[in-house]
Design brief:
The protein has 3 helices and 9 strands. By secondary structure, it is α+β, with helices and mostly antiparallel strands.
Length: 192
């Protein structure tokens, strides 16, 4: 029986539970919030810095008067993902709002390509500035299955730009490639 006495005495001893150190916990939470805010601020500064580096890019063209009266070759609704320097799928262009992802409505006519982006800057690409179109799988950090993106190459000032679009119905993409290539051949033929 004597062997149980020490256990009984141990069980009878009262121990208080550890007290939560609220000041240390609050300090950690505040520190994490400050760190997250600092990282966000750095990302925003990087975005602004990239925009200032691309400030030599001319203003985007607006849709010309009477554009809606022309015969529409194709229309598309979907997503605008980004614009990059042609051939450099990760070199995002952020100047003039070209880096902002958004919904998009594309309209192709003989005059050019009208890009309407609710919530972002709209722009117009004249037919003479179109250089071609292709199907690809990635642009500026957005990667999709092979052929999931419609990439339209166009000239703006002295810079060639690739703009990436994804239709709500991706089966439309090949028709867009054909129509833009046909339009660029026609435009090149009339320019000579």
């Amino acid at each position: 029986m004597t062997s149980l006495t020490p256990l009984y005495q141990l069980a009878a001893e009262r121990k208080s539970a550890e007290v939560t150190d609220w000041s240390a916990r609050i300090s950690w939470v505040i520190g994490l919030i400050v760190l997250i805010a600092f990282v966000y601020w750095l990302m925003r500064q990087g975005w602004k810095w990239r925009g200032s580096l691309q400030s030599d890019l001319p203003e985007l063209a607006a849709t010309p008067e009477g554009f809606a009266d022309g015969e529409k070759l194709l229309t598309l609704t979907g997503r605008y993902h980004a614009s990059t320097t042609a051939g450099q799928w990760l070199d995002r262009i952020v100047a003039h709002g070209l880096g902002t992802r958004s919904r998009v409505e594309l309209t192709l006519t003989g005059q050019g390509l009208d890009v309407v982006r609710p919530g972002a800057a709209d722009f117009f690409v004249p037919a003479a500035a179109l250089r071609g179109a292709r199907l690809d799988k990635g642009i500026a950090g957005k990667v999709l299955p092979e052929g999931g993106l419609l990439i339209i190459t166009w000239a703006h000032g002295d810079k060639l730009i690739d703009s990436g679009f994804r239709s709500d119905r991706s089966a439309e993409h090949p028709a867009w490639v054909e129509a833009i290539d046909r339009l660029t051949r026609t435009t090149e033929g009339t320019a000579r």
